[in-house]
Amino acid sequence: MFLRTVLILNPTSGASLLATSSGGPEDNEAAIVAALRQYNIEPEIWYTTPEDAGSGLARQAVEEKVDIVIAAGGDGTLHAVASGLLETECTLAIIPLGTMNNIARSLEIPETIEEACAIIAQGETRQIDVGMMNGQVFLEVAGVGLEAALFPAAEEIKRYGLWSTLHGIVEGLRTLFAFQPLRFKIVFDGRRTRLYRAIQISVCNTPYYGARLRFAPRAVMDDGLLDVLIYTNFSKLEYIQHAISISQGQRPLEPKVVRRKIYSIYIDVVNREAEPVVVHADGEPIGYTPASVVVLPGALRVRVPKKVAQGPNLLDKRAKKRELYQKVSNQKERKSNEQREENGPLYVK
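Structure tokens predicted for Diacylglycerol kinase (349 residues):
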């Protein structure tokens, strides 16, 4: 089926109370190899290390003209491997062994080893979008504000051990209640400039991120666009209620979340005298505002289930043609709306 397949395995994935995989590294490796052999796929096995989380291995695979690279680990492993495969003919396959597995969840890739291997053998290859903030690639989400401030606590929650989990929860709540809303200047697609008072701005490529929550249900991973969520006028209690509502499949606080689909976005803090605001890409702090974010359409080849290849998380070819036609036909209306907005109020609470 594949001329050459490499399995990049993270031997420490899933070392968390929240991990979906209960097997140890040796058990997972044996199960993966056995499942792939059922489809006559004999992978070479490469291991991540503290010095190379997977990006270097992925680049080596590209140089050696490997057909498919299987990333077996959590979202962090996938981020690293994917970054080495961008804009190449090498295809990424996913076996989710981590704590959150948001990328796999967004692509409806099963969390059992046997079913994930079946997708590798029997699924389809599609090209998905990737985001880039200040030169740093992200697959899930980049953000400014409260979300970026909370990620260190979230990472602590994911670590193995009850004490680490409880300490992360306490630190997260402390950060939440101490954080104050900020005034941001936002430029959408290099044209429209608006001011918002917001607690958080998230730029999403996947529907799921964070604690397996579907924050961006309208995100489509190959539409050539990113979904922006601007959290305006949120109290701390409302923010918690919003997350709980999403986790329980209930209606979120939509009126207080401004949603936009964009090609690019520029975010900066209005008050220059304020303390620097941390920005993150896929949970990793990458500096401070200002932040420039762009989409890299179809930058990554990935194996997905056949049902996903036809939507809704990915668009089929006919749907893409309709989307393109709709974008072209709406250009005049969008320009007209922008002109009306220019005559309206600039500041949005």
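The chain is about 35% helix and 30% strand.
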